[in-house]
Fold this sequence. Notes:
Leucine-rich Repeat Variant, ARM_PUB, mainly alpha
Amino acid sequence: xxxxxxxxxxxxxxxxxxxxxxxxxxxxxxxxxxxxxxxxxxxxxxxxxxxxxxxxxxxxxxxxxxxxxxxxxxxxxxxxxxxxxxxxxxxxxxxxxxxxxxxxxxxxxxxxxxxxxxxxxxxxxxxxxxxxxxxxxxxxxxxxxxxxxxxxxxxxxxxxxxxxxxxxxxxxxxxxxxxxxxxxxxxxxxxxxxxxxxxxxxxxxxxxxxxxxxxxxxxxxxxxxxxxxxxxxxxxxxxxxxxxxxxxxxxxxxxxxxxxxxxxxxxxxxxxxxxxxxxxxxxxxxxxxxxxxxxxxxxxxxxxxxxxxxxxxxxxxxxxxxxxxxxxxxxxxxxxxxxxxxxxxxxxxxxxxxxxxxxxxxxxxxxxxxxxxxxxxxxxxxxxxxxxxxxxxxxxxxxx
Length: 400
């Protein structure tokens, strides 16, 4: 009897689940039918709003609605809204369709691909061009671009679309007319798009790079990480490295990021950008040394993450083995990394032998070799650089 009861309860639960699924499926079918058969803008807006609601929190509903064919009519509404611009009904259907498409694409790669294949990108850009000052439309389009750009196959399609990348850059830069959410979505969308090599040149054709450096350090940690991710991707091509190197104070800003102990991912990304640029250009390497990178790298090799420590060590080795460096600030190039620890260990012993060692060095022209002098000068520069940073952070007078 107990087994029969268990089977009966299990069967009852299954029947309840089936009934619930049938009811939900019928609701989805009704919403799809209303959308496909809508004859007026108001009816279409109502149906699109219903699709938006059903797809908001239900992953299965997103798949089912797409299979029921709601994507083409939703994309078609974008055209209808553009043709009937200025009417309240057209505006409502426009916004409803944009957010319905957004909800359908969330965590659903098949729907992302279907929306782009239906020509949604070009139609969204038409809406932006038809109503450039519509803040709500811009925010909805930026959110759609963020979601759709998460799919790798969509990245080059969005980047190739006329005006998509300039629109995102413009949304990110406009301080007064863009909402914080649309700026955040635009930055994240640009980060997604920069992963595709085909999008790097279109991004570089805008003035995004200087703006990224202006924002670096002024935003939340997550935004700084995305900014540095974009710079990492751009640094993979020669045009991107030239653009980064041409930004005033680019290297001092990146070197300063190496000191962000509470943001290890930012340190790693900044290290990567600097490492790639130092490897490709001697002039950039000199600019990094002048910006105080050596002291920052020495500190990073001690307190950075494992990845940051490895990259910092590679850069230090690169600086030490570069025989072409000749400026006083780059005197570290005269020594090998393997000798550094020995020199540091011997410093205290040399100081204890003040009289004899100093006179001998003066007499025979160099008990202390050029390499040791270079390291001593490096330590002094590092201490001076760190003291300047502490003074600036403490807002103390320069005379201090």
